[in-house]
Amino acid sequence: MHMKNIVFTSIIIFVIAVSFTSCKKQSVGTTSTKWDTTNVYDTSIILDSISGPKSITGFYIGKIGNSSDYPSFQMAFLLRTNGTARVYNNTLGMPGNVDTSSISPAEGTYIVSGDTVTTYCRYLYDTTNTFTTQGIVNSDSTYMEGSWGYGMSIGSGNFFVYKEF
After folding, report:
1. Which helix (H) or strand (E) holds 117?
2. Quick one: which of 6, 47, 59, 158 has the most CB atoms within 10 Å?
3. Residue 58 above 90 pLDDT?
4. Which residues contact residue 87 at a Cβ distance below 8 angstroms, ignoring those fewer than 6 apart?
């Protein structure tokens, strides 16, 4: 009976050892995933656990207002992957959806710091006419709201935009 216990105990230890070594996570291999214009190279185990904000790049449309007025003029942002921005600010107050062909564009750059997006732009029709926007983007980068101002300041009014694509 003593020999049976030794064999049985040895089998149990062997099964437990095999179980622990087979549960060890191993690298499945390198994969490449394209996610909002950013290439991510890592193992599939890591890719499955990615969370957090999506890319800020894209086209956003919404409204902009002056002073403390509720935003009612059309506005759009095109945030490109190279850090440049095109901003459309419809001060004419035309109703309907944002038609970027009827709005004078401004070109500039944007900087992302945490959840804050800051743009520095100048109108193409008058390069001496510059403005700044600073907004807070939500965690999935689909909505942004904030303030704008002339030159390098903010505080001349408010805006909000939704990501279209």
Report:
1. strand 116-123
2. 158
3. yes
4. 75, 76, 77, 78, 105, 106, 107, 108, 119, 121, 133
Q: Are 69 and 93 in contact (CB under 8 A)?
A: no
- Tokens for 70, please give them: 């509720």
What does the block give as tokens for 42?
Answer: 């890592």
Name the residue type at position 16. I
Residue located via tokens 């935003």: 71
Q: Tell me the two tokens of residue 29.
A: 């291999």
What is the model's pTM? 0.64
Give residue 97's pLDDT: 55
- C-beta atoms surrounding 107 within 10 Å: 14
CA 109 to chain centre: 16
Q: Which helix (H) or strand (E) holds 47?
A: helix 44-47
**pLDDT band for position 35 (cuts 50, 70, 90):** very low
